[in-house]
Design goal:
This protein has about 55 residues and is mostly helical. Helices cover about 70% and strands about 0% of the residues. The N and C termini lie far apart (about 40 Å).
Length: about 55
């Protein structure tokens, strides 16, 4: 029982770290896009959004 509780806590901890990382990543992306717009650089190339995993 203690083992399951320990690993569940570790899962929650990792989940929280992932959320914080994604939040920082989105904030950086938005900041970068805003800087490009301010410079008048409209050559934004957005990658196609697909839900399929990339085959390597």
């Amino acid at each position: 029982m203690i083992d399951r509780l320990y690993y569940r806590c570790k899962d929650i901890e990792q989940w929280w770290k992932n959320i914080k990382f994604r939040w920082k990543l989105l904030a950086y992306r938005d900041k970068y896009r805003n800087e490009q717009r301010e410079k008048g650089d409209t050559n934004e190339q957005t990658p196609p959004t697909t839900t399929e995993p990339m085959m390597s």
